[in-house]
Amino acid sequence: MARETDTPDRWIAQNRRASHDYFILETVEAGLVLAGTEVKSLRHGRASLAEAYAVVEGGEAWIMQLHIPPYEQGNRWNLEPTRRRKLLLHRTEIERLEKAVAQKGQAIVPLKLYFSRGYAKLLLGVGKGKKTHDKRHTIAERDAEREMRRASRAGERGG
């Protein structure tokens, strides 16, 4: 019998601002190097991707400002909540991300943090920043889609 924690892709945190602020061009799944108390804190569903961003330095990928709060029973083994953490990626994936970031206006944005088959994973997206008029256009499209769904439901009810 599978427990709820064993289900694949159990979300811990999601970066909702990412789709609002960036056009996501491609995504990559990365593993995280974490300490034991950090994993226990994540299992309680506590993390924040709000300020997080990823960088490539010296041929290695790092996640910065990912906030994992201290584990309550962790006492002296707890580490700094926003320390930089190494991302586990293949060399070719790191090189592809490095080339993407070298282009003007693109950044590596963390999208989701989740457990997959017992391992903490981070879904990274290569994003191109949206301008204000692009954001307005996206909001207008979403509102139009919502109105069409409402109208079709009202038509189905006969009202």
Automatic annotation (TrEMBL):
**PROSITE patterns the UniProt entry points to:** SSRP (PS01317)
Give the main localization category: cytoplasm
CDD domains this protein is in? SmpB
Q: Extract the GO molecular function terms from the UniProt entry.
A: RNA binding
Q: Per the UniProt entry, what is one GO biological process?
A: trans-translation
Biased-composition ranges for Basic and acidic residues?
Answer: 137-159
Q: Which Pfam families match?
A: SmpB
Q: Name one GO cellular component term.
A: cytosol
Gene3D superfamilies, per database record: 2.40.280.10
Coiled-coil annotation reads none
Q: Where is this region: Disordered?
A: 133-159
List locations, semicolon-separated: Cytoplasm
Which key words are in the record? Cytoplasm, RNA-binding
> InterPro entries this protein is in?
SmpB, SsrA-bd_prot, SsrA-bd_prot_CS
Question: What is the annotated role of this protein in its UniProt record?
Answer: Required for rescue of stalled ribosomes mediated by trans-translation. Binds to transfer-messenger RNA (tmRNA), required for stable association of tmRNA with ribosomes. tmRNA and SmpB together mimic tRNA shape, replacing the anticodon stem-loop with SmpB. tmRNA is encoded by the ssrA gene; the 2 termini fold to resemble tRNA(Ala) and it encodes a 'tag peptide', a short internal open reading frame. During trans-translation Ala-aminoacylated tmRNA acts like a tRNA, entering the A-site of stalled ribosomes, displacing the stalled mRNA.
The record's comment on protein family reads: Belongs to the SmpB family.
User: Which PANTHER family did the record assign?
Assistant: SSRA-BINDING PROTEIN, TMRNA-BINDING COMPONENT OF TRANS-TRANSLATION TAGGING COMPLEX
What NCBIfam families does this protein map onto? PRK05422.1, smpB
Designated name of the protein: SsrA-binding protein
What organism does the UniProt record list as the source? Eiseniibacteriota bacterium
Q: Which gene encodes it?
A: smpB
